[in-house]
Amino acid sequence: MTDTVNCRMAEEQDTAQMQELWLRCFDDTPRFVQWYFERYYRAENTIGIFQGSKLLASAQVIPYRIHLRGQILDSGYVVGVDTAPEARNRGYARTLLQECLQMQRDRKQSISLLMPFEGQFYYRYGWPFCYFHQQIKIMPRELRCAAKPWGNIRQAELQDAVDIMQRIYGAFIQNYDGAVERSAESWKLLLEDAALENTFCYLLEQDGQAEAYCLWNQIKDNGKDTVFIREMAWRCEDARAGMLQFLMEHVPEGQLLWLELPDDDVLAGQLAATKTAVVRYPFLMARIVDLEPCLEHLCYPQTVTAEFCMAVQDEFAPWNQGVFRVSVQNGKAVVKKEEVAEPDASIADISVTIEGLSQLVMGARSAVQLQKQNQLQAELPFVQLLQQMWPAQPLYINEYY
Which of 10, 169, 358, 383 could cross-link with 46 by S-S, CB 3.0 to 4.6 Å? Predict the structure, then answer.
């Protein structure tokens, strides 16, 4: 008799199987995986598909808090979606993703984040790309038009610099939405991971006060010696220029410099000579988990007073599928699902896919852009209203799991 296949929350005794499956499915080093399952993994955040007692597939949802539209939202980052090779093509990943969304809904996590192995697999389930990085690979001398001497650099031990980096990071993300609010514990874990990769921390100080930091890795990129700056943040533009000066002067001669910068960073327009070194890199996907509480939790411009009906298509998370009446007044929204069978555009002022609405709310796309892409249908006055309610805005996140 074949053992029954069932999907359930993980238990502590499943951890060894979870770790073994991760090693089979991903390219991470055994050292990282050992650290991850000892320090980061939590059974209560993990869902598995089992045949009897044997693990066939799993996924984890790491809790995060992100800054969005004037509020801090509980969110979840879906990681480690893996299926044993012998159990693939049975729809297990789809089942896991639905269970992850249901778990996030139960835990009141408004936004679901996900770093895909490929976008194509997740588009069908309502996750669009919302976060992009500027990925810049250059010879250090290309920084000469953006760099300038300012401040003094000192190297710091990773764990000794937690409080300093937390303060700089907190100032840096004030310019961005979608950024993660990092606790002292999350900083500690982030830097433990960095230490596994022999990361160095450099602080830029002015008048005894740290104003910028960078996390420096020496790696091979396509066989070429490369300095990879896995994160850089600053409190003012002088500090940014001073850190670029440091990189220009201290990356070894003949080595490549690899920077991962926010999507709106201006360095691409300041490079000295090259015109081929910048890639807009799709970094992270995001989607709304539960539409009504998500939209009600956000802040809105005080100048907007409006009421409209919005038809939303979301077959993967059916609680979001339908027609919603949205009222906005005094900076807050009230959202109520109408009692209709289908998200009928004929009875709604606005019709939108969950992918389009997620990008709009996050600030990754404007209503005008979504209309051009046929992800949103509305008459001009409602398109203009959506532009006012959810204007496009710079997003930044640098969490990998």
Answer: 10
* Rounded (to 5) percent helix, strand, coil in the chain: 35, 35, 30
Q: What contacts 36, CB < 8 A, 6 or more positions away?
A: 22, 28, 401
Residue listed under structure tokens 């050992």: 34
107 in a structural domain = yes
Rounded distance between C-alpha atoms, residue 370 and residue 384, angstroms = 12
Closest CA to 310 of 375, 364, 366, 368: 375
Indicate the residue among 238, 260, 282 that finishes a domain.
282
Asked, for residue 401, whether it belongs to a domain, the answer is no
Q: Which of 149, 129, 135, 369 is nearest to 265 (CA)?
A: 135
Number of H helices, E strands in the chain: 11, 17
Into how many domains does the chain fold? 3
Domain housing 101? 5-127
Asked if the structure places residue 340 within a domain, the reply is: yes
What pLDDT sits at residue 343? 53
Residue type, 57: A
Query: Does 162 share its domain with 263?
Result: yes
Element (H, E) at 5: strand 5-9
Reported as a pLDDT band with limits 50, 70 and 90, residue 19 is very high
At 396 the three-state DSSP class reads: coil
Q: Identify the band that residue 16 occupies on the pLDDT scale cut at 50, 70 and 90.
A: very high
Strands, DSSP E only, in 24-138? Answer: 46-51, 54-68, 71-83, 111-114, 129-138
Instruction: Please state the pTM of the whole predicted model.
Output: 0.94
Predicted confidence (pLDDT) per residue in 124-163, tens digit: 999 999 999 999 999 999 999 999 999 999 999 999 999 9
400 in any annotated domain? no
Token pair 């109520």: residue: 336
